Amino acid sequence: MIPLIENEIVTKRQWIKKEEFLDLLAISQTAPGVMAINIAIFIGYRLRKVKGSLFATLGVVMPSFVIILTIAMFFHSFKENPVVEKIFKGIRPGVVALIAAPTFNMAKMARINRYTIWIPVVSALLIWLLDLSPIWIIVVAGTGGFLWGKYVKKSI
Amino acid sequence: MIYLQLFYTFFKIGLFGFGGGYGMLSLIQAEVVTNHEWMTAGEFTDIVAVSQMTPGPIGINAATYVGYTATGSFWGSVIATFAVVLPSFILMLTISKFFLKYQKHPVIEAVFKGLRPGIVGLLASAVLVLMTTENFGSPQTDLYTFLVSSTLFVGVFIASKVYKVNPILLIVICGVMGFILY
């Protein structure tokens, strides 16, 4: 989706400069929430303040909203259909594999090594086996990183 | 009451949804499947499949879908989708206003140093939680389904991880295989 956004707002419409877009990309990735929406809010604000943000957000949300609402309204009525059932029975394990594959890519990007591998392993087990909320993992991991930067890194 | 719950739940998801769509996945699943039981693990997997095939982000898709299925009303979708966007809105407006180059701040960098491995764990948990009998069958009661599912899982994993095959194509192939084999 990012090349699409870049092409529209940097190349075609020239709403912001390329370097600024890269900064914006970093901010949108760091901030919580959906990245495309974070970008839309920022660009909207730059052009027309809060009103611009509102319309940009509405624009980027609308297509998904309409598509998924339509599916939600009609999916259950043909889900019982034996053909659809068979198709989704095949799709489900594939989708789980499509989530498993990026897990390893993300581990590489996060530079997981033998000293940090316990963090994702313990986090995953706590969520899986003890139904711990992922919010706790985020809060504890973020605080841990903060404390590490404040006390450990400085003493080295 | 359900509307308030929907709002609160998706606001939380929007607020703590670090790490992009995949990072958000486990949060949505924990809230929607494990905590509130608004949908089963199988239904959740279906929604992820739909999100892979349509252009929209999973965060929005899940909010819109769950909002409708949990309430049976259009307004459920509107409220859940609004709630998941609201934290971004508040945060990004604040950032735009002051345009802090905060991603280069050493404190933020340190926080993310801890956050990143945690998000990898979140994603791994999403995979584990979705490995249910509903999605895979069970070797005791439904060996055939279990074998087909496991083969599809391994095949798609290798195709995606090693050969970088397009996910939409892989989903279509799985659908066709499901139709032929079951």
TrEMBL record, chain B:
GO cellular component, one term: plasma membrane
Subcellular location: Cell membrane
Keyword field contains Ribonucleoprotein: no
Pfam family, one: Chromate_transp
InterPro entries: CHR_Transporter, Chromate_transpt
Transmembrane segments: 7-28, 74-93, 114-131, 143-160, 165-181
Swiss-Prot/TrEMBL keywords: Cell membrane, Membrane, Transmembrane, Transmembrane helix
Topology term for the membrane: Multi-pass membrane protein
Main location: membrane
Gene Ontology MF terms in the entry: chromate transmembrane transporter activity
Family the entry assigns: Belongs to the chromate ion transporter (CHR) (TC 2.A.51) family.
Protein name listed in UniProt: Chromate transport protein
